[in-house]
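Researcher: We're teaching a course module on how sequence relates to structure. For the next exercise, students receive a sequence and then see the predicted structure as tokens, so they can try to spot secondary structure elements on their own. Here is the exercise chain.
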Amino acid sequence: MSRRNSISLSQHEKTSLPPPDQLIVLYDGVCHLCQRSVRFIIRNDKKNKFKFASQQSEFAQNRLSEIHFNNSLETIVLIKGTTYFEKSDAVLEIAKHLTGSWSLLYVFKIAPRFLRDGLYTFIAKNRYRWFGKSDACWIPTEEMKAKLLS
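Model: And here is the predicted structure for the students to work with:
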């Protein structure tokens, strides 16, 4: 599966999507590293571009099935309009839209994908062991709830 694909959606599905400039991050809701990453993105999203959904949620499951995406818990997924990104492409695309110097990380896009994704996969495979995991999705603060789609 390509790391960046256009999604073919019906007219009904297109009208149910957030605006095209809205970025949707689908993350593993029980992963502590993923939860911390979401909180980090929210703190550095001064332009309010990002919305979030746990991959365990109905919203995320519906979106992932629409794009025929398997093994979603192995990667973060970023949906931007009708394009989606996974693994290191998703991380770098997210960084590009953050405020401050975090957007400079996008320069790593020049590194070969197999190297970037290799590092991403190594961290992803060890994330539960290194950072832990919850029995259930985390409970966001009231401020963060406005950023969640489900």
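Model: If you want an answer key for the exercise: The beta strands are 4-6, 23-27, 50-54, 77-80, 83-86. The chain has a mean pLDDT of 83.
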